[in-house]
Fold this sequence. Notes:
Blueprint: E1 3-8, H1 13-24, E2 31-38, E3 41-48, H2 51-59, E4 67-73, E5 88-89, E6 95-103, H3 106-115, H4 126-138, H5 146-156, E7 159-167, E8 174-179, E9 184-187, E10 192-195, E11 207-210, E12 215-220, E13 223-228, E14 240-241, H6 257-273, E15 277-278, E16 283-284, H7 293-298, E17 301-306, H8 308-325, E18 329-333, H9 334-337, E19 348-354, H10 360-371, E20 375-380, H11 386-390, E21 393-396, H12 409-428, H13 433-444, H14 446-455, H15 458-467, E22 472-477, H16 482-496, E23 499-504, E24 521-526, H17 532-543, E25 548-553, H18 558-563, E26 566-569, H19 578-596
Parallel strand pairs: 17-18, 17-19, 19-20, 20-21, 22-23, 22-24, 24-25, 25-26
Antiparallel strand pairs: 1-4, 1-10, 2-3, 2-4, 5-6, 6-7, 7-8, 8-12, 9-10, 9-11, 11-14, 12-13, 15-16
Helix pairs in contact: 1-2, 3-4, 4-5, 6-12, 6-14, 6-19, 8-12, 8-16, 14-19, 15-19, 16-19
Bound molecules: 6-O-phosphono-alpha-D-glucopyranose.
Amino acid sequence: xxxxxxxIGNKDPVPILLKGLKRLxxxxxxxxxxxxxxxxxxxxxKKAGKVSDLQLLVDDSSIKGTCGIAHTRWATHGIPNDVNxxxxxxxxxxxxxxHNGIFENYETIKKVLVKKDVHFSSTTDTEVIVQLIxxxxxxxxxxxxxxxxxxxxxxxxxxxxxxxxxxADEPNKxxxxxxxxxxxxxxxxxxxxxxxxxxxxxxxxxxxxYLDDDEFxxxxxxxxxxxxIKSKKIISKSLTKIDLTIEEVEKGEFPHFMLKxxxxxxxxxxxxxxxxxxxxxxTTNLGGIIxxxxxxxxxxxxxITACGTSWHAGLIGKHLIEEYARVPVHVEYASEFxxxxxxxxxNTIVIAISQSGETADTLAALKIAKEFGAITLGICNVVxxxxxxxxxAGIFTHAGPxxxxxxxxxFTAQVTVLxxxxxNIGRKKGVSKDRGKELIRALKTIDQxxxxxxxxxxxxxxVAQYTATAENYLYLGRGINFPVALEGALKLKEISYxxxxxxxxxxxxxxxxxxxxxxxxxxxxxxxxxxxxxVLSNIEEVKARGGIIITVTDNVNNSIKSLSDFVLxxxxxxxxxxxxxxxxxxxxxxxxxxxxxKCEIDQPRNLAKSVTVE
Length: 614
Ligand code: G6P
């Protein structure tokens, strides 16, 4: 949610900053801007719209500098327009600042500043901090340095932030700080980078430092220093080598990141399982959480907390863990969990699931769980992310960078990790080796299954073309496939703007059945398991009312063929691997529908990939 880039070094900052913004555009794309410092001269360009709109203006300008900051925005306070775009400036025009997060007490501070005749030009919360820094720097008997003015201002704000700032009166210096919003420092040869994640940095240096909350960075000719915001105590942090490749953050031959990431699933699920399957013993090796397995075995309950797609993975995880491990699991939206008085104690395990590892609500829920003494485990995709560092232990999904806003390969990787956890605990609680082996064998053939699905997309395209003008879509599934229905519906909403609902197939009779007519496409998830005949009856009910029936199944029989308008066939697999293969076909369906409707697939309206505000 909002992307920040900063550069100081011997190169021209403009292309570095703009390319960096493009890499971070998944975090927000309603406006963007750049500010450059050349000796005592601060210049800037900002613009509502995509980074490409900013690029056109920059290309037409002669803007230059020796260091600079840039930002791509996802609006929280103030509509997306040129004025509200970052960087923001103080009233002297000598201080520039970019911000990711929310200053919750901005109105209070603004009132005080307005009384002092400070004139505000935007309606953002961010402008408040830059004006406050200016007050402390320029209108203060104490004659603070720029660094001290920034430190002092940060102590007055409440909320979450990653900020990077420049001052024309102290050139060749960048100041940054983090509290709640991610910030990475890249350390090159006499050049330094700051960014919301490592993707803008990788082609310049592999050496990074992940900043933690309360940390303050000063970069100038002498190099960089990291200290505590308040106490100024120097913090020594070691460099981390990033192993991300440029190919992983570019879409290559694919028209969209989402399509690339759907195709990545031909290997990403295996990447998640690499070194973790033990066929001989019908179990899994989970080094990341090994020390906490006894706690899980004796836990009174498990909470899984997450947002969005990750929450759907959690619902599938509940089914699996309760089935194999027989421990009660409650799945909670992090935004709800953090504010309710849940029963959490030292016998509770809290599993936070997050692709980015930065979602503000999930992080906050985790912190609360820790305060109540729970053991906290993480399932994250981004190594070094806040959630992965905040948890007692965890398992990385290793799905590779996910850039398309609609989550695809991260979801299937999360489900894979949950399968592995459920089986691991289950085996220790009496699930037979043979049952374990059966599941592992199915997991081991997943690459082939995914390749088959992605080769046969003719039918998916047909469904998309036939239903492209639909206003609503219904997804129905039972048992472990009810969350798959929810996720299928979410994918469609996110990228095609068709209203879609996921429902337990039998529950449809208690409401959604009223919506069924010849214009409503209904996706039935019909795996060959003990729910199959029940789902068949539900299909009959929709057929009788004229709905358009799209059946996704690994069991095409005559009844399915005669009842369905379209059948999307999946390779036969284990009933607990089916949610993965089925999700992939539903991802493709959402993608093809969005293509037919000419939607902005990688940057859907109003969404952001990483939601670092409440
Ligand atoms: C946003 C994204 C979703 C994602 C959710 C949770 O809403 O658009 O794709 O599922 O955040 O993100 P996380 O990184 O915590 O999994």
